[in-house]
Amino acid sequence: MDCRMWDIGKFQIQFLFNAGGNLSNKNSNTKAGNVPEDAPLRGPLTPLSGEERRKASSDLKNQQQSTTGLHHGGHNFHEVFQWKQGRYADLPGAKISEMMKSNSLDNAPTQSLLSVVNGILDESLDRKNGEIPHRVACLLRKVVQEIERRISTQADHLRTQNNLFKIREEKYKSRIRVLETLAAGNGEEIKIVTVHPQQTKVRRKTIISLFEEKVKDKRESVKETDKHETHEHETSKHEIDKQAIKQETEKHICEIASLKQELEMAKTIHKQQCLEMQKETEGVKAGLQARLNELESLLNDSNNRVKELETSAKSKCQSWSMKVNTYQSFMDSQFHAMRDLRFTSNAIKQELLKTQKSYFEEFNLLEVKLKALADAAGNYREVLNENRKLFNEIQDLRGNIRVFCRVRPFLPGQNGKQTIVESIGDNGQLVVTNPAKPGKEGQKTFKFNKVFGPAATQGEVFADIQPFIQSVVDGYNVCIFAYGQTGSGKTYTMTGPNDATEEEWGVNFRALNNLFKISQNRRSTFQYEVGVQVVEIYNDQVRDLLSNRTGPAKKYPFFHRIHSLFKCFSFRYYCCDIVIFVFLNPHTMGVTSISQPNGLAVPDASMHPVLSTTDVIDLINLGFKNRTVSATALNERSSRSHSIVTVHVRGKDLKAGNYIYGNLHLVDLAGSERVDRSEVTGDRLKEAQHINKSLSSLGDVIFALAQKSPHVPYRNSKLTQVLQSSLGGQAKTLMFVQLNPDVTSYSESLSTLKFAERVSGVELGAARSSKEGKDVKELMEQMASLKDTIAKKDEEIERLHLLKDLKNGYPGIDGEQPGTGSLRYDSSPIYRPKTRNRLLGHTEKTVSDHYNWFHSDKRSETGSTDDEKSEITDAALSMGTETDDSAEYVHSPEGVSLGKPKVVPKVRVLQKPAQASPTSKSESPRAPSPAIKKTLSSSSNLVKPVVRKKV
Ligand SMILES: Nc1ncnc2c1ncn2[C@@H]1O[C@H](COP(=O)(O)OP(=O)(O)OP(=O)(O)O)[C@@H](O)[C@H]1O
């Protein structure tokens, strides 16, 4: 048997040639993977060494033996094989069929099978005809088939092994590469370490061999020398040689010793390096192991993750399937519900049709009813207007100057003081007692529209004022002022105490709050705009309390300011047919004298649009911070000026497009006081004089109105000028009479009460709303332009008259007879300042006289003294229909001054349509042209002259 073995890497492959090998032996060591562990590393397909081959063949023998022992089936075949002495053709059929059994064929060794085939073929060759009996042929075929099967199985096996080997080879190659690269770093060192001892060894060997050869030679030579000891000379020579050799030997021994030392050193170095390398290798191994562990843990992690994901996916799947089931059941239930719903909807449809029918019938009925309601709603507006009218009529009936009296409580620290107030009646009756005359004798009774006791709250007071605020929104001018002695509670009533809470708010805040409320309630029918001005009159000069202007005013800022203010607030000033500018000094405000309610009295004062009560509070607080106050003996912090909060309201009727204008003056007058009692001097005295003078002028105006005097002296003080629009016949006025209950103030309180009582008897006539229709506006505009034209023409005519007079030799101011020329008012007494002032009642008087006149007990309780009355009446009579304003109108703007009117010889008087009396009209020398007449007559029913009504 020929056995050949090759080594591929670690694996051995045995190829058994010759038929003795059992190719189908499944336990063979040649099976892939069954590699002996001690197999040395070799190159691919390296023939095995002799010893290895021997070992392998002995292994094979053992295998064959064991195989033979194991398979009993093979024994039968050997028996058949033993048949060699006979012929196959002569074999009995039973034997052949036994051989052909698959079991025996499977177990038969291949060698036996081959010998059977050879035997049969040989037999057929031996025969003459070469025929093979049928049964033998069958056997032959079977055997050949078995051999073929075995060969193909083996081939497959070999192929698989080959592939495995290839894979392993690749794997080991890569490992080798890795190790090579690892070793590359240390290769050089190892070389050095390995080469050096080898070199040393070789050198040593050569030296030793040389030494030995020399020793040998010497020994031989010594032997020869022994043989020939004949010559002494030679002996001595040899001795010398011996010594030399000895020396040389010693030398060599030394050299050997040093080499030995070197070798030892190299050995130790090598060992150290080996140890280091081992360590390094171990480190690398450990690193690789750690990496391996890491990778393994990662693998484990990922496996765990996979497992987790699998479990979560499973649970999700389960939940989804559950959901699907739920949805399915839900869908089913919905489907059922839908079916039910369909039934129900059909029923509802039926029901709806029925209901629709009944609704139609009801709608028809409702339509009829709604029509009736719409008609009623149409009338509602008219009813509202009627209501407003009625409300104002009631107000008119009550009188347009109303007087409320308020008694201040004693202040903290004044407890136990004696009061002058005896009793307060519900019907506005107030009884005061003179502390000097106890009993009925000293009692005086006064009657006002209402009297508020010391316990009255701010809210209760305002409740009675509220209708006036409503009037403002309806387009009326309203003036509310507080009058009284210093410290009697004027500021408290009008504004409230410092840092007032909402409960303590005075009239100012409450009025504006109420105004906003009313405008909100009416927002569906009216759109309101509200603007506020706050001024003070100090020493007869008007100052804007809300202005942030620091420097002096420009020389003629008024035209521009008025225009911009009016424009900004959409007010038109075509109604102001008499405009007078008064230039006092650059720091103070000018006041315009106005004839229409919607004009601005102090156009130079800043106007602040307000949208809420908060805006108002801020503005009023700012204004009052700027107010002039000082301490007097009577009140620690006494207001030394009249403060006026003016609220301008413009309402647009959203339906009709009309505008309504209303003004509300809220006046906190400076405290009236006796100069001697207030113990003031210097500037304070001057202040007091101005205050008393302006209050006296207010009294003049009110009494002129009381007397229905055609001349009302508004121009005597800035106060009356500013309040003119709210004090005239078209306004509603409310006066608060503030009373200090202290007995020490009895005389002041008494005169205050007397004045107030007289005022309460004044009738101003019917108030008039400043409602404008679109048509009225247009007509007013036309009127204004026509008036301009007339004025221009008049001026021209006047110029011509003047020229004519000059031509005719005009005699001068004193020469002309009064009344001769209708427009030629010359030096009639009214234009002589002295006379004029006398007529107005204060030229010859001092300021304290004014105070006395105002508060004098000598006056009759019904009004002015008879002398004064006649004075006023005289003045009014001599003035005819002219107002005091007309005198101012003739002054050129440059020369205007309040106290010294510059008189020009010829005067044209422009009549205010609202105030023009029929007499003055008829007396007018220049009748308007027919066109103007027509315009005036068409507007006359809209802008009616004021008719003073007596209630
Ligand atoms: N009805 C009232 N209830 C409580 N305190 C009041 C009332 N009226 C006035 N007072 C208090 O009386 C003092 C004087 O009032 P106030 O300053 O309003 O007087 P006045 O008339 O405005 O004085 P002047 O004219 O000097 O400015 C203040 O401390 C005020 O708080």
From TrEMBL:
<dbReference type="InterPro" id="IPR001752">
    <property type="entry name" value="Kinesin_motor_dom"/>
</dbReference>
<feature type="region of interest" description="Disordered">
    <location>
        <begin position="27"/>
        <end position="74"/>
    </location>
</feature>
<feature type="coiled-coil region">
    <location>
        <begin position="242"/>
        <end position="312"/>
    </location>
</feature>
<dbReference type="GO" id="GO:0015630">
    <property type="term" value="C:microtubule cytoskeleton"/>
</dbReference>
<keyword id="KW-0067">ATP-binding</keyword>
<dbReference type="GO" id="GO:0008017">
    <property type="term" value="F:microtubule binding"/>
</dbReference>
<comment type="similarity">
    <text>Belongs to the TRAFAC class myosin-kinesin ATPase superfamily. Kinesin family. KIN-14 subfamily.</text>
</comment>
<feature type="region of interest" description="Disordered">
    <location>
        <begin position="880"/>
        <end position="951"/>
    </location>
</feature>
<dbReference type="Pfam" id="PF00225">
    <property type="entry name" value="Kinesin"/>
</dbReference>
<feature type="compositionally biased region" description="Polar residues">
    <location>
        <begin position="59"/>
        <end position="69"/>
    </location>
</feature>
<dbReference type="GO" id="GO:0003777">
    <property type="term" value="F:microtubule motor activity"/>
</dbReference>
<feature type="binding site">
    <location>
        <begin position="484"/>
        <end position="491"/>
    </location>
    <ligand>
        <name>ATP</name>
    </ligand>
</feature>
<keyword id="KW-0175">Coiled coil</keyword>
<dbReference type="InterPro" id="IPR036961">
    <property type="entry name" value="Kinesin_motor_dom_sf"/>
</dbReference>
<feature type="domain" description="Kinesin motor">
    <location>
        <begin position="400"/>
        <end position="762"/>
    </location>
</feature>
<dbReference type="GO" id="GO:0005524">
    <property type="term" value="F:ATP binding"/>
</dbReference>
<keyword id="KW-0547">Nucleotide-binding</keyword>
<dbReference type="InterPro" id="IPR027640">
    <property type="entry name" value="Kinesin-like_fam"/>
</dbReference>
<feature type="coiled-coil region">
    <location>
        <begin position="776"/>
        <end position="803"/>
    </location>
</feature>
<feature type="region of interest" description="Disordered">
    <location>
        <begin position="218"/>
        <end position="240"/>
    </location>
</feature>
<dbReference type="InterPro" id="IPR027417">
    <property type="entry name" value="P-loop_NTPase"/>
</dbReference>
<protein>
    <submittedName>
        <fullName>Kinesin-4-like</fullName>
    </submittedName>
</protein>
<dbReference type="GO" id="GO:0007018">
    <property type="term" value="P:microtubule-based movement"/>
</dbReference>
<keyword id="KW-0505">Motor protein</keyword>
<feature type="region of interest" description="Disordered">
    <location>
        <begin position="811"/>
        <end position="830"/>
    </location>
</feature>
